[in-house]
């Protein structure tokens, strides 16, 4: 058997450099060039001390002008900006969840969308107190979709999924006014609070930032995750491959990109059909390869084994290969640059959502009722485009790694059941993992999440942090672009256990798992919250006592700030490698790095030196172990 070898960031960069040579030949732009042209970034913006929320300004805080025209100081301006940033992210993730609820409402026997996990639907219905006896599964699906949609605008009460928390935690959140009410109410309240002449008290703005983030994590995102499982199947471990080498030169290459699995699932369905494969062969291709970018990629990888071409900052690279017939996008994290870039090649850039319309794209409006015909038209368009390739521009970097993905909470529990003594132990719990932690075989866990960002050497922070954590017997659960960084490097190959400390290596061997567990897309960070809640309940602890931390070393989007706020709101210390634009206010810095502890038991740590960041995470995990006496 050949020796396992990680793919290095240097190899990623060499592959990208070769693709940029092709781009230069055809006059294509790239993020590397645009980032350079934007540097240095505005320091007022980076510190959060620029305010443009009314037309008396824009105002910026300087020693000469310590207050805006209205009299708001740096602390209020930074706080409002942080809350607006959170509201943007929570609205985005929650709209994703809303779309999935609508898709569930359209599911029917023999239709475009069907219920693939009826047991999960029944389980959630029971949890929500919905009568299931004697009901047709589709009638129940429609009822649950409607109840889910009501979570967005209900006039009273809190998010239903908060009842999944350990005893007393929901009540503490209510007491501190952090428990999320209707999802849309929290977004609207955040925009209202940050309007001119409303809140400028940092403490109030931070509390609402946590509450708005919680409406995402324990509301919109959690519904997006749970109902996607009902519709498309709950992920279980499946083998796939990652990095640009998954694209196949002899095949029609379709790349799906974005976040909503409703589109990508249908594209995969039709690309797999005999009719379309035969049609591809009739135009001279050997077949069809669908691969993915960003979270849409995570969704189809963990349910179908569809290979992952790359993460956020690799989206232009798939077009630069010259072998991409179509890049088909839904919503979020899509570069508007893909339009002009695709025009330099033969690639079709297909937008499908009224939420994400862009210049230089072909817009095929996609909805649940017409999903089949839309997907078929897109796959056919890609096949018809195969003949327009320019062979002299084709270059696919031969980099790829094996990855085992799809570790939903249900899948993790099943893996744990495999290592329990069924004669003595209770199955269906997280107790085997807890035993590994309390005995010190595993020191703790890091939930590694988030985007990549040109401000940090792409993927480097994710990969280096993961390597050091697993060498110190800390298991990684990963989602989003962070998960794809791990997969591209080879850290989701089961052979990567050779990089672990002795304890984690033994656990990986016994449970037959990689040391970095793929939990899904960005909305699936809600899975991590469910797992943390289950670990707390099974151990009789509160979530904030667990030796678990969150980390987003390369984050860049509003969604990431919303996620950070719900992870901290849940009681999990969160470590950031990019400053969240609050450094202009000492009061906001103090609140976010220490003050939130009095409400949730957790806070942020910001450290842009990656070596220091990982050491601080390990230190925090060990502090939590000491506090528990383990």
Automatic annotation (TrEMBL):
Protein name, UniProt field? Carbon monoxide dehydrogenase
Q: Which InterPro entries did the record assign?
A: CO_DH_a-bundle, CODH, HCP/CODH, Prismane-like_a/b-sand, Prismane-like_sf
Q: Which cofactor does it need?
A: [4Fe-4S] cluster
Enzyme Commission (EC) number = 1.2.7.4
A Gene Ontology MF term for this entry?
Answer: anaerobic carbon-monoxide dehydrogenase activity
Write down the chemical reaction(s) this protein catalyses: CO + 2 oxidized [2Fe-2S]-[ferredoxin] + H2O = 2 reduced [2Fe-2S]-[ferredoxin] + CO2 + 2 H(+)
Do you know which Pfam families this protein is assigned to?
Answer: Prismane
Keywords in alphabetical order: 4Fe-4S, Iron, Iron-sulfur, Metal-binding, Nickel, Oxidoreductase
Which SUPFAM superfamilies does the annotation name?
Prismane protein-like
